[in-house]
Specification:
Helix content is 50%, strand content 0%. By secondary structure, the protein is mostly helical. The longest helix is centred in the first third of the chain and has 19 residues.
């Protein structure tokens, strides 16, 4: 068998697998439940930075671009939104939230937002100064407007 034939068969197999995984329904639940309560933001700037860098996974105001309907990207996106909303949801501040003390550290060390999120969402990439502003603003917001007790979140 020639190399050219092996390459073509390999490409056809990859294409076939790609088409078959589109039949898996996970990752297509593109819902945005209603906003029931937001924190009393310490400033419009804090909300704007949080909306840019956090709301797609940590609110009920998720943007669902076309690629979030194509597996395997749909799986990653759905997983991240499910986990993000379970830990902390700015749109459901009237419900218990996760351990908010970890939020500033996650932003400071760069684990939030995840590096791969910034690849497709350049506006979510915050400068060092914006990170400092966001952390300070979130700390002030959480102190002045804590969520209802009983936190723990799901993530």
């Amino acid at each position: 068998m020639s190399i050219r034939r092996i390459v073509w068969l390999g490409l056809l197999a990859v294409l076939g697998i790609f088409l078959v995984i589109q039949l898996i329904p996970y990752g297509r639940n593109h819902t945005n439940p209603p906003v029931t309560a937001e924190p009393a933001w310490d400033s419009p700037r804090t909300r704007e930075l949080a909306a840019r860098a956090c709301f797609d996974c940590h609110s009920n105001e998720t943007a669902w671009p076309w690629y979030t309907s194509v597996a395997p990207m749909s799986w990653l996106t759905q997983h991240d939104v499910d986990e993000g909303r379970a830990f902390m949801n700015f749109s459901e501040w009237d419900k218990p939230q996760g351990e908010l003390g970890e939020v500033g550290e996650a932003i400071r060390e760069g684990s939030m937002p995840p590096w791969y999120y910034g690849l497709l969402h350049s506006d979510a990439r915050l400068s060092d100064a914006e990170k400092v502003q966001l952390i300070a603003g979130l700390n002030a917001t959480f102190a002045a407007s804590p969520p209802v007790p009983g936190g723990g979140g799901g993530g």
